[in-house]
Amino acid sequence: MSKTKDKLYFWDFALLWCGAAISIAEILTGGSIAALGFKKGLIAIILGHLIGTAIFIFAGIIGTREKVPAITSTRISFGLYGTYLFSILNVLQLLGWTAVMINSCAQSLNLISKTMWSINNIPLWSVLTAVLIILVIAFGMTGFKKINTLAVVLLFALTLVLGWVVFRSGKLFSQPSGGSMSFGSALELVIAMPLSWLPMVADYTRFAESEKEGAFGSFLGYFIGSSWMFIIGLGAAIVSKNPDPSTMMLAANLGISAFGIVVLSTVTTTFMDAYSAGVTFLNIVPKFNEKAAAIVITIIGTAASLLVNMDNYTNFLYIIGSVFAPLFAVLLTDYFIIKKHTKIEDKLLLNIGAVIVWAIGVAVYYLFIRLDFIFGATLPSMLITGLLYFISWRYISKWKLMKNSKNFYAA
């Protein structure tokens, strides 16, 4: 079959998700688990990415089969009004990610510019970053594919240099763990990163030429890229007590390379956040232009990055996990196990039962966060939520609000 512009193939997905994973946020989050020490931290990174990326891939498969964006696919289980709620939550989390990414980029660029050119101006770098993101949005997905392919190759090469700077030190393997973080907490932070892409993955896999190409390409690209970024952040935090790659690159006289890594990684990753925000917004206001929505998200995110303290976003990751892990536990159980609702039902406005199970799942997630469970909160909360939905769906499937009906519809 000849390749067409509207189809994505294995390497498209591998490069797309590797580019999304190569970001300052991933490096900094990897550095946040340094208290475990390198060996335990490495286990948490690999295990967490296996769990998180596997969940992420199953959500992508639904998009490939049904040819719909991620949030639209939730209509299968929750109905039209349910997707409105999750669309709002997704736009808010994407706005948060946009602000976090722009802030992280500006902080790193400012560190480089102060050292190399005596320029100390975070707002300048924030605005410059936003302008570059908006330019990529203007090119659209076709232009982004070309930019992303070049960026991923350059970025991965630069991060290999960064890895050499980190791993050449013998301190990495001999440094004792600090002991201030539990393995379960570290594992949950790792899982939360691929989980944050759950409401977006099908925005791209819906264009897959085949289910296998979309699934394996996405898994390979994100797993390798994100794991490598986390490992670099972990190693940097242990060796230099600072996971910001700019610090290490400057120490190795690689300031220009650091500048390139920060700018390219932020632009490619934040484009995907802003683009998916535009796609999600169309679920609420179908006539709105997705590029315009993405640009507005970028502008608001830039303002937020300058006005809100973004230094610690651990709680932000937990919020994402608490909302979207139970949500997709219900959807995946419905779609792959129960298999009674595998198509979008136009007349379904709201599945009250599914929303109730989701809300219970959110509470269960925070319960496991408080318990500091060794396997984190995402995996047990998703298993419990899915099991609860599987057991109760025959009864709660009647609790539906249908179009053209003032009462609940008895299925």
From TrEMBL:
Pfam families: Transp_cyt_pur. It is found in: Membrane. InterPro entries: CodB, Pur-cyt_permease, Pur-cyt_permease_Fcy2/21/22, Thia_CytX. Coiled coil: none annotated. The keyword Transport applies. The chain crosses the membrane at residues 12-36, 42-62, 83-102, 122-140, 147-167, 179-198, 219-238, 250-271, 292-310, 316-336, 348-368, 374-396. Belongs to the purine-cytosine permease (2.A.39) family. NCBIfam families: thia_cytX. This is Hydroxymethylpyrimidine transporter CytX.
